[in-house]
Amino acid sequence: MKKIFALILVLGAAFSSAAQTLPTKFDVKIRTKFHVQGMAIDTTARCFYLSFTTCLVKTDYEGNVLAQIDSIPGHLGCMTFDPSTRKLYASLECKDDEIGRGIAANLKSADYTEDVSKFYIAVFDVDRIAEGREKAMQTFPVTEAIADYKTRYGCAGIDGVTIAPQIGKKKGKPCLYVAYGVYSDISRRDNDHQILLEFKLNQFKAGKTPKHSAKYFVFTGNTNWGVQNLCYYAKTGCIFMACYMGKKPEFPNFSLFAVPVAQKPVKKVLRGLEDDGEHLSLALWQQGLLSSVKGIRGWRFSDATTGICTLGDGTWFVSTPLKLRKGVQTATVRQIHWKGGPQENPFE
User: Fold this and answer.
1) Residue 11 pLDDT more than 60?
2) Residue 2 within any structural domain of the chain
């Protein structure tokens, strides 16, 4: 009897250990017209959250859909999860360009016009996703990006979001960082920086319009649509910026960059923005591939542009589009591991 009891304990322990195993790869069991845009992991609830442009999906570790919110009226992009509050933050664009018009047509709603082009942070209570958009989602305008849209810095809106320590502060509280999308245009000189807005998390309260505490410029060279996904990795102390490669021949056109958060921002006149006064500037992490342009280093890793998140221990996940047939697709989620260093791909 003692041996049987001991065996039960061993099997129980083994089952419990297996139950905690993270997935290595799975396909999301959803069919959609739009490709995946961003992702986050919730190890407490053992699930993932993924954005499919107009749809938020909650899945288990095998890709089974547990809950979803459909017909979100805009472009839901990158997302980041705060386990302490169980809130999910995501970028949301409602604008008058080709992407906005395509979304409006798919949702059979009125076309967006320049007068109503707006950018928001959507905040979801993840434990209420099954109750629908009205119960689970709040939106907060990003007024600085609205003001800059189309007129300055090649601003195309916003996309990347992540929670990270306050830049340049040893004891600063975590902040939400929101990255501009930047149009690809080889004829301009004012669009060669990525732009990060910093918000204190207490700014996102019902009925409040958030005010950014800082606006940072990061010299990378022009990219196609700017930062698609942001992700803070504590082990390196860096915010990672995933972009579609740029087209300007004078730049290395990397697709992944990193920004150390411990650095002190420098206020100065910036290249390509000489007539714009001084701005707070951040330097790139001097890891990754070298380039012929002073200060620019990075990697060529495109899989991070449609969703990336990390557990902080070297384990990361990326989500990439998976086309099933014409006009229908889903996403593949796979586990990767950070190795760093000066090579094309910093993951294995």
Assistant:
1) no
2) no
